[in-house]
Amino acid sequence: MKVLNKTSHKFVLAIMLCLSLSMLLTLSACSNNLSQSVSPDGTEYGLVEEGKLTVAASLDFPPFENFENNEAVGYEVDVMQAIADYLGLELNYLPSMKFDTIIPAIAAGGTADVGVSGFTITPKRLKTIDFSSPICDTNQSIVTLNSSSIKSIDDLKGLRIGGETGTTGLDLARELINDAEEIIAFDEYPAVFAALQSGQIKAAVLDKPVSEYYIKTAYPDCQVVQEIPTGEQYGIAVSKDNPGLTKALDESIKRLEDSGTLDELKKKWF
What we know:
270 residues; five-stranded mixed beta sheet; 15 strands; disordered N terminus
């Protein structure tokens, strides 16, 4: 039997390593297999399902997303529909997901093409996913019961404060209200308002358009006592492995801006 010398042995090991890496890459590609599509502007991008723009969202975020009469409605829903129409795709909203699970799902790939739920474009989030160009500007707000004596953020010392898990409102509360008794995270906005009504918390830090909508439609015993100008911008979350889709979204948003469609949708919902 022929015995390999050291050089030949290293050569064989190198070949085996290359083959193993090739197999891993092939398996990875198969697990993230995307249907290829092309935008009207000629940009190539991938989709988890051919002919459909699949969206992950938390459908408890009116007026941006909400679930009414067995369908998704809201400003961002209309924006996504307009984008899908421009790209020649069917819009496909998945069943509602918890807010803080959407970005990890988009980063992992394979579940949805994009994520929307009033996602503020932040450096922290940009470490794991990409964002489209902005589709909305917003600020934060402090919400209390109408009967509360709280007038501003300066009155929150020693109190229990609430917010929604994973939101910039909760991050802002932790950043600005260092002397709060406790800052409590809730899975959904209705749970935050319920905690206010029950006295579990004395105030909440929430996205202003959403807090105003909930107060107007469901919680008239609550009020916005202060707007906090954060200058946030919402974008559409996209996997870093699908840069073509981000570009196609930006092309679509530019068309919607130039045509006045975005302004019309803002007037409709805000």
